[in-house]
């Protein structure tokens, strides 16, 4: 059988190690990753190998030659002009593949039993077999769900936390019949996971998954690179380690003497021709390549030093990586997580702080204290964006210097000379960070429209009218009083897609930031008609005559937020009788106890004034809490049901988009009013996009997120929600207490349950595997329901915390209580990593 080894990767996430080295040539225990793959193939009598190359192909060819030295026959195909992707590169050589063939990723370490996998493929006789593995954190990979016979039923590439429905992932090793490549066109970049396999699933082509318990690790980051070294040293994966095992788990290469004063602590590997000075201590996890020299008295622990490195006297290195020919002078300290690219020089008594990365060819002067990565910046985080945007502790995680670089990274993916609007809430820290963001934008040649302190819905509305490429808004986090939230949206006011967020993250972490010439630095302007334009939008989409003729009196608590500056002007223009509370700006966000106190006071004022309703505005004008005419607070689910009821009553046949977590009251209302309900993922971006792309949408969102009115703008808007409530109540002519009694009764519970990250994927897989397929919905998390009823249970992994959220919904109180207890126990057992029965769960 012919084997295709895909070895064209550039390994951008392994930089600075791969700045001048292809990823498959990165050494693990002193042998390139690709060599370990060839050794695995040879052990299973697979010696006819084709390597596909793209990035620095000569490095690979010069090392492996024709393959005879490694026990295989090796040929190469180089993608000269552009990378074709995993599937595209194989399609490019399909004329060489006349029989079933094996595809192996060139950047992973594994000891999978290929002989047994080939036997599995032959037994099932399908055109495709995927070799799968189970991992504790599957969202980093393509997840694959197979049925009891091993047939692949669902495939999702790099899911979000809430989309994880199994812990079984694609290893990048496949057994294929050449005929499946007919589904792809030649010369086009295509990926197995994103393109070919979905096509095959759609065409109902049989694909099977061989699930291995063997070791497998995708060396996709510097963290996993360090981990795979440790796994090899501790014998967790079977690799061929060069050298003689002089003591258990201590391998020493040819011509490497061991002075009597050297202390060696297993496990470790020393390459050929190494020289160790007197009193050297090499701690567990250390791997030294060939021709490495260590000076007297130096101490290394869990250090990976590639060929040709020099470390001077009395230096201390811990948990760090040195690429080829790095020169470290005496009395140098390298702290945990330091990564140094090839040919760098670190002069004596220099100190590199934790996590610092140095790109190739740099020079650190004597005595320097380096606490930031040189040239390319720090990469302490892997991801910047969370569920809603970029969040972090104010002036700790979200600092001015961070904001400058973040904005510059964003600006670098935009066309030079375009414009971006920047807005914020009234907090002093938000002003500081927004100024830093504007500096970063202008430094890359992007013009800034500074809206200053303004409610977020107005900023989204302005994005549609000001001819901008996008916008940035800074505000106190709506759910975390100590955090700031930076949100990015496009020219329509919709939050950026995950693909755009990844582009920003790539530019940020790799420092691929464009710099403008002096004459091209961006210009800042201050648009002054945004509030007036927003008010005109209000007037266009409301029946303002109902306001003038309505006897309704409302009480609005702005909770000292910026929306209090805007909304009174709009309501007074429409002649609305509104009593305003707490409309002055407060420089610090309120905590939850302060908000609850204000909410109690709001209810008291509503009853004292015999008002029609009261509202408390939050989340910088996006969300609200409603109080009825008796001073009673609406729950989030009641408010969502109320808005659905009022909207469909006045828009018969309309469509309402709600998150998957919303209670079934909305479906009951839609059945009564002849409307339609579309369920969306809980991510705010998905809600916004669904409201824009689905036809006939008259309302979107929920009380937890805020409500969307697509005709006005695509974002959440508490201010327009208030105006719409006044309009609809005036039209219907009933008080809120009466309407509240008309809403469907649903027994709905939400319980967050702690669950380790390591258990989330296996929990989702267990739930999918132990329920009938016709009971499952996988829009977001795993939703289990009885067909043709409103009984359901939803288990939704939290995107940023070690939690899963359990939602139970039913018109039957006893059913809801039983399911809440039953699923709570099951999730808590998984959280303790206890084994569970695979028996099908009866609802």
Task: Describe this entry's structure for a reader.
- This protein has 843 residues and is α/β, with parallel strands linked by helices.
- It has 5 domains: 217 residues, Alpha-Beta Complex (Spore Coat Polysaccharide Biosynthesis Protein SpsA, Chain A), CATH 3.90.550; 129 residues, Hexapeptide repeat proteins (UDP N-Acetylglucosamine Acyltransferase, domain 1, 3 Solenoid), CATH 2.160.10.10; 139 residues, Alpha-D-Glucose-1,6-Bisphosphate, subunit A, domain 3 (Alpha-D-Glucose-1,6-Bisphosphate, Chain A, domain 3, 3-Layer(aba) Sandwich), CATH 3.40.120.10; 198 residues, Alpha-D-Glucose-1,6-Bisphosphate, subunit A, domain 3 (Alpha-D-Glucose-1,6-Bisphosphate, Chain A, domain 3, 3-Layer(aba) Sandwich); 85 residues, TATA-Binding Protein (2-Layer Sandwich), CATH 3.30.310.50.
- The strands form 11 sheets. It has an 8-stranded mixed sheet with strand order 14-15-17-20-23-26-29-32, covered by helices on one side.
- β36, α8 and β37 form a beta-alpha-beta unit.
- α3 crosses α5, α9 crosses α11 and α15 packs parallel to α16.
- The protein is globular, with a radius of gyration of 31 Å.
- GO terms for molecular function: intramolecular phosphotransferase activity; structural constituent of carboxysome shell.
- Belongs to the phosphohexose mutase family.
- Keywords: Cytoplasm, Initiation factor, Phosphoprotein, Protein biosynthesis.
Class from helix and strand fractions: alpha/beta
Largest sheet, spatial ordering of strands:
14-15-17-20-23-26-29-32
Report the helical percentage.
25-40%
CATH class category name of the largest domain? Alpha Beta
Largest sheet: 8 strands, mixed
- Helix run count: 21
Whole-number count of domains: 5
How many β-strand stretches?
Answer: 53
CATH architecture of the largest domain: Alpha-Beta Complex
